[in-house]
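User: Can you write out an input/output pair for a complex, sequences first and structure second?

Assistant: Here is one pair. Inputs:
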Amino acid sequence: MSAAVDTAPNTRSQKRQKKHLSDRARAERTLGWKLSAPAFVVMLFVTLWPIAYAIVLSFYNYRLTDPAGKKFVWLQNYVTALSDSLFWQDFLTTFIIVVFTLFFELIIGMAFAMVMHKIVIPRKTLRTVVLIPYAIITVVSGFSWKYAAAVDTGFFNHWLHFFSAGAFPLDYNWFGGRWDSLFIICCSEIWKTTPFMSLLLLAGLAQVDSSMEEAAKVDGATWWQRFYKVILPNMKAALMVAVLFRTLDAIRIYDNPYIMTGGANRTQTLSMLVADETIKRVEIGMGSALSVILFIIVLIVAAIFVRGFKVDLTSTGGK
Amino acid sequence: MDTTMSGKVKTWLGVASAPIIIWTCIPLIWILSESLKSTSALGDPTQNTVGNFWPKDLTFDNYKLIFSGGAKDLFVPALWHSIVVCLCATVISVALAMFCAYAIARLEFPGKKLILTTALAVSFFPVIAMVTPMFNLWRMIGLFDTIPGLIIPYLSLTLPLSIWTMAAFFQQIPWEMEQAAQVDGATSWQAFRKVVAPLAAPGVFTTAIIAFFTAWNDFVFALNLTSSNARTVPAALAFFTGASQFVQPTGAICAAAVIVTIPVVILVLVFQKRIVAGLTSGAVKG
């Protein structure tokens, strides 16, 4: 700009335009900071301190009942945690729950969203009804499914007994083994969180230009082709946000298994392990170390999504 | 031909909605039915119909127990705490996130990647790990077992979620309209207020609902950062007892569950129209 020879009026107008643009860019930058600062500052205030403190605590051998014995032990807590078979068992349990629930939530959620998107007749009823499970407290959902599957109070066995013409035993104990317990836990989790999925997917579906679908239809695309080639790519942003949120949320699953089994039959999840160490055994150091490990797992998964699947909320202009 | 096809599709979709409604409603009706069973009916299939599902004789004993009986002091204050804490957390986080999400989705400024990354990291930090340091600090500064002492950690749940969800919504808004307004001489702020805000409102409402439900749902903070003066319903449920120590609290828990579901249903009914308008016709049309 400084090298520009100031002779032609053409150059001058270019120069003015450039200056004008940088003014706007600066104003935009200031406005951006002003708008986002309050939220950012509050967010840091409520979380940064506890998170930082948790990281610090994870390097200590620290029991609440023995504050004098607090000792800096470097990475000892991490080594102990990662070499413990209980950690890996809980890791596996959590992983199974995440994959199983996410798979079914995606399919059911997408089906819900597509029906809700196009439905005419019980439109309002359906949308209202579907919203309710998401609004319900997870603890309540956990109790509902627990009592439903229980041998004494439940109805599952009675219904399965009836529909299988007596083949299913009335006294089947759903909480007697690992896989049955996990199945009921996953059912409650899927029932509870699928509406969240379908809401976000519905939002994405609504953004898909219906004329594009019409055009594909006119060109002879089948229903599946329209779904796979037109609808899905055009709602990718909403889809990936829904999947990302659900995955990361499912990793720290706590309420459902806590209510239903309390971790019995090897259904303990990583979050429950953290809670056990922190609350029950008051091993603050070990609990913090496990929290940090759980957090790192979450970060890795998030990084895979953001890098690998190109979920980028920060990009501006178009999709 | 087109009308007959859409008529067919209409019918098919109507039929498809039936299993969705059944699947969604059964656990709800189930918990209602459990709350209406007497203590003896809870353990005795002969006193119930439809395969141990619905009680033959309805009783409101469980509701009496939580509103005027032994569980009254545990449940009634908890209900109020839940409502106050969740409303405050929702309003604060949505108000803050609205401006932040707009800036992230729309404006060019250094640091927005940092904000989003922080929001995500914060949003999925295991809440149980935040409890211990907060517990210590809250006791030192007198926030333990108070309403504000619960609203603040709830912001760590609702605020990042609000920022992320709203930023995603805002990204799908047709920004050409804002540019058009700016070409016509509007400033960034005017364009935001007059063009973007009406387009973004549905996303804001949906986000508010998601944020409220997240706060309403919290179990870990409520359990560990309160003892009696600010304990919310989910945590209170964990302390429920039956009419006597030998009776399972099943009925009381189910009755309480039904009660806390009622405000949620009202909320869904009130906001449903907005959600539908926001999510379907939405801001984008071509």
